[in-house]
Amino acid sequence: MGKVLVIGAGGVASVAIHKMVQNSDVFEEIMIATRTKSKADALKEKLDGKGAVIHTAQVDADQTGDLIDLMMDFGPDVVVNLALPYQDLTIMEACLATKTDYVDTANYEPKDEAKFEYSWQWNYKKRFEAAGITALLGTGFDPGVTGVFSAYALKHQFDEINEIDILDCNGGDHGYPFATNFNPEINIREVSAPGSYWENGNWVHTKPMEIKRHYDFEGTGVKEMYLLHHEELESLGVNIPGIKRIRFFMTFGESYLTHLKVLENVGLTSIEPINYHGQEIIPIQFLKALLPDPASLGARTIGKTNIGCIFKGKKDGIEKTYRLYNVCDHQECYKEVGSQAISYTTGVPAMIGAALVMTGKWKKPGVYNVEEFDPDPYMDLLNQWGLPWVEDFNPTLVD
Ligand code: NDP
């Protein structure tokens, strides 16, 4: 069917590319372009001859001009940004210059500000409309599948959704005292930030990890989870009519939280540059260099993830609750694509989002979040490509 340019060759990109190769009727040619070309070459070596034709290139995705040159040369139908949130805007600019569709999994975050929100990317809406190209934002698991679950629940189960609780549980164990399951810098910035939730049209702010709850997750058992700010709260607050409250909870183990507290207390999670023996160092980037590469955790991670949403609303005037979730096994993912489940549960939806744009099912000029499209084809593809979902019509609620 067409050509895809994937930017990045880390944990998430590796899974998305494995799945694109399996889906080579849609992705006939794949260009993997990233900062460290050897990582793209290693993927090509592993996957060559298994489906799609694979090319590799070195690119600095902070440089719009370099991206435009690469895109003019390769001529992709869609660009899938699996680098870091810092690169979202430079890649969107290059897509505008070359009239190419754009897909990502995380909203823009300035490097020097611990803040992420959609406003920067939503501001591109008119320019994408005028150029006749689609930007599909946030097609990972959360954001991503959680937004599709919300659109599906609204379409098939409710007349009105009033409350959504998104629960992200990782019951996996990698055996290290401290490691992050996706890019350490982005992960630590996210979990050390103040929390917040959406209520009656306003943000309610909390201290980091201030709100704690328990939940008994299928496949992992009872876990402690903490309320975090998360990007899909912002888009679902706008896109789900009648919504009154949206919260996001993520599970963390005791060891992770203790290490994080110590690292914070000694200043190693700071994004403020310091001068060390004449060289400028950003502490959190130095810490990233010390920590295990998330892409290397696959072989040693055991256990399962359980991620999904609990909905509360009304159908035919009657109050109703409903839950949708997926359980994913770290070792099963490793057997299939050589990665742990966090990369898997993000990389598969990235491939699915790109496939829906590529095949025209989710193609509409402008900038959109996943919940703004028809959820049905996406839900079918989740079952088909390794992330089957489960419905619960009598879910335990979170107080
Ligand atoms: P990794 O750090 O493993 O991979 C990032 C890749 O991007 C690396 O190959 C890196 O190159 C490359 N890269 C970074 N900067 C540049 C640049 N300037 N130019 C070109 N390439 C660059 O991260 P993950 O795979 O864990 O995460 C990828 C994305 O997925 C992130 O944006 C993350 O926030 C998002 N994510 C989304 C989730 C969701 O559910 N929605 C969940 C988990 C992650 P190099 O090898 O040189 O470092």
TrEMBL record:
<protein>
    <submittedName>
        <fullName>Saccharopine dehydrogenase family protein</fullName>
    </submittedName>
</protein>
<dbReference type="InterPro" id="IPR032095">
    <property type="entry name" value="Sacchrp_dh-like_C"/>
</dbReference>
<dbReference type="InterPro" id="IPR005097">
    <property type="entry name" value="Sacchrp_dh_NADP-bd"/>
</dbReference>
<dbReference type="Pfam" id="PF03435">
    <property type="entry name" value="Sacchrp_dh_NADP"/>
</dbReference>
<dbReference type="Pfam" id="PF16653">
    <property type="entry name" value="Sacchrp_dh_C"/>
</dbReference>
<dbReference type="InterPro" id="IPR036291">
    <property type="entry name" value="NAD(P)-bd_dom_sf"/>
</dbReference>
<feature type="domain" description="Saccharopine dehydrogenase NADP binding">
    <location>
        <begin position="4"/>
        <end position="136"/>
    </location>
</feature>
<feature type="domain" description="Saccharopine dehydrogenase-like C-terminal">
    <location>
        <begin position="140"/>
        <end position="386"/>
    </location>
</feature>
